[in-house]
Amino acid sequence: MNDLTAAFGLAFQLLIGLDADLLEIVSLSLRVSLTAVGLAALIGLPLGAAVALYRFPGRRLVAALLNAFMGLPPVVVGLLVYLILSRSGPLGVLGLLFTPGAMIIAQCLLVLPIVAALSAQTVADLNAEYDEQLRSLAAGPVQRLFTLLWDGRFSLLTAILAGFGRAIAEVGAVMIVGGNIAHATRVMTTAIALETSKGDLALALGLGLVLIALALTINLLALALRDVARPQYA
Amino acid sequence: MSLAPNMLERAPAAPPRDAAQAGAGSILPLRLDGLCYVAGGKRLIDNISLEFGGGTRSVILGPNGAGKSLLLRLCHGLIAPSAGRVVWSTTKADPIARRQAMVFQRPVLLRRSTAANVAYPLRLRGMPAREREARVSEALARAGLSAQAKQAARSLSGGEQQRLAIARAWVMRPEVLFLDEPTANLDPAAARAIELLLEQVRDSGTKIVLTTHDLGLARRVADEIVFLHRGQVRERAVANHFFTHPETAEAKAFLKGDLTW
């Protein structure tokens, strides 16, 4: 109990004092996860929509894979990316292993199935409503895809948020491909794991609080945006 | 109400339509050739052969379940007939879909602003922004929606939404405009506004084909009546003649307001 209160006290001191190490770790976390989610959205939204709209060979397989991979264990993704990016791996020449770049790739792969599978569902629902109207207006297949993505933007925001929640909170993938190197690839989750095992509970708890606060803030912002805009457009 | 002959001579009052500009011939008359549509073992559209010419406003009249909406969807090309053909008059393979438009009974408005809804079909056709904006504001003005241009389309009233749907179809300057029960679920004032808008559409040279079970609407807007009953065309006549001298028992009963199904 004492440990806990002492840890909370120290944690708040770090937060209020804007500890340099803490800020560095938080900003790298945000940079990695936001970039990963941005990339995953860029690929996953059209991919999900395509799975929902187009009939192509292997479509069912892709849909099944996306759904199955929503719950992919981060360590496994980390391991695969590690193997691909390691010196002897197919992309070893890029020298990305143990850099933020590798972490972005790993988190992107982790988040992609979530964004794609959820947007496939959203787009399929919307397409059922829009189908006749879009055919009447003679929208082409690609036009239809982008129309539905845009008109589903408020629902798709939820898919992207789910992806962000997964990326910012995972340890396994960034630990394996990033290596938790101080001032280079240390992010909030890997730092928490390290500080906890070292016994520095204050820093771990401080980071934990920041992590929760960040996730909460981003979700609240997104929900607020949706609540302001949605009643008018939905 | 003026009759068909002088309607046929009416020259398009609006600027030349896209199709005319493109130098292509008219897609009218539209010919239906032994059209059938079967679903669940029932002949919902039963061997309909018809021709729709330009200029006149054709009203497909009949009770609920007569097959009016189906017939419109078949004409528009949304569903394929079980038998028979829908034949447009153009010999070119250019997309017929882009020269005719339809307003659904429950139009699907995009989750965007009123102006963006009207601009949408023009964007699909790749019209340059400047020309598009001019067209959109003209269409909004004619539909009486200029003040609502920036408002979210789905926050409009029922009558405004229906006018928006017509503006969105009309902005493409189609040669034919199909409307499915355009004033159902609207109060009399909103319905009147739709009728006035349709007069403008007619004056612009666009052929109107609309379905309704509303005798009042049919009397006010029809130049000719196609009376549909149980998937069959039972009567086709110049509107005045149909209302004063219906020939079939079904049409007489329908005009008297008897139950005909």
Write out key terms for the chains shown.
heterodimer; A: 234 residues; mainly alpha; MetI-like fold; 80% helix; 0% strand; B: 261 residues; alpha/beta; Rossmann fold; 3-stranded antiparallel beta sheet; disordered N terminus
Q: What's the N-to-C terminus distance of chain B?
A: 30 Å
Alpha-beta content class of chain A: mainly alpha
Number of domains of chain B: 1
| Poorly predicted parts of chain A | none
Give the overall form of chain A: globular
SSE pattern of chain A: HHHHHHHHHH
- Order of secondary-structure elements of chain B: HHEEEHEEHHHEHEHEEHH
Average pLDDT, all residues of chain A: 90
**How many helices of chain A does DSSP assign?**
10
- Protein chain pair with the most extensive contact, residues per chain: A-B, 20 and 20 residues
Kindly report how far apart the N and C termini of chain A lie: 49 Å
Number of helices of chain B: 10
CATH topology of chain A: MetI-like fold
| Superfamily (CATH H level) name of chain A | MetI-like
What is the percent of helical residues of chain A? over 70%
Counting DSSP E segments of at least 2 residues, the number of strands of chain A comes to 0
- Under the CATH scheme, the architecture of chain B is 3-Layer(aba) Sandwich
